[in-house]
Design brief:
The chain has a single domain, classed as 3-Layer(aba) Sandwich (Rossmann fold). Helix content is 22%, strand content 32%. The protein has 3 helices and 9 strands. The strands form 2 sheets. The chain has a 6-stranded mixed β-sheet with strand order 4-3-2-5-6-7. Strands 1-9-8 form a 3-stranded antiparallel β-sheet. Strand 5 (92-100), helix 3 (104-114) and strand 6 (120-128) form a beta-alpha-beta unit. Helix 1 packs across helix 2. The structure holds guanosine-5'-monophosphate.
Length: 176
């Protein structure tokens, strides 16, 4: 049976917001270069689209982390599955994430990256669910603040499906 997904943000809305974020980041980091760290796999689509909208020099790396816990709630105990390819010492780092939920994963990750000697570490998230926050995480650039709902698309999955949807949608409860 196919899941029912209702559109939360259309492809045009997401792309327009990413364009704005790219412009804002380019202004804020004017005269510098920026090192984007995309978090696999959810943030891949967002990282690539964002990178295309940044007009200052960009380098990119990717990291994969997983959080121990049940399937719906992260635990705060984070495992690095794939670390960075390159050192970040002296770089202006911008972590690019799909969504900040409890904050457990990002809280660990930002702390870990801050100890590696970069000039700065900031966070850009496409989506933010502040109602769900357990750990305090500062989101420097936010695409959209959303209510507490399970979203898919634009890189976000439901059991590994729907990452390729070009929009952000909500999986309707009870329809799966
Ligand atoms: P946190 O540690 O902030 O609780 O969890 C962050 C991770 O949980 C995200 O990177 C994402 O993989 C997953 N996640 C949290 N909320 C959602 C959601 O609404 N939809 C999907 N597909 N993943 C989510």
């Amino acid at each position: 049976m196919s899941d029912k997904i209702s559109v939360l943000y259309t492809e045009d809305e997401v792309n327009a917001r990413i364009r704005e974020l790219g412009e804002q980041i380019s202004r804020d980091y004017a005269g510098k270069s920026i090192h984007l760290i995309g978090i696999l796999k959810g943030a891949t689509f967002f990282t690539c689209e964002l990178a295309k909208r940044i007009t200052i020099p960009v380098t990119m790396d990717f990291m994969s982390v997983s959080s121990y816990g049940d399937s719906t709630e992260s635990s705060g105990v984070v495992k690095i599955n794939k670390d960075l390819d390159d050192p970040i010492e002296g770089r202006e780092v911008l972590v690019v994430e799909d969504i900040v939920d409890t904050g457990n994963t990002l809280s660990y990750l930002l702390d870990n990256l801050q100890k590696r000697g970069s000039s700065s570490v900031k966070l850009c998230a496409l989506l933010d669910k502040p109602e769900r926050r357990i750990k305090d995480v500062k989101v420097d650039y936010t695409g959209f603040v959303i209510p507490d709902a399970f979203v898919v698309g634009y890189g976000l999955d439901y059991a590994q499906k729907y990452r390729n949807l070009p929009y952000v949608g909500i999986v309707e409860p009870g329809m799966e």
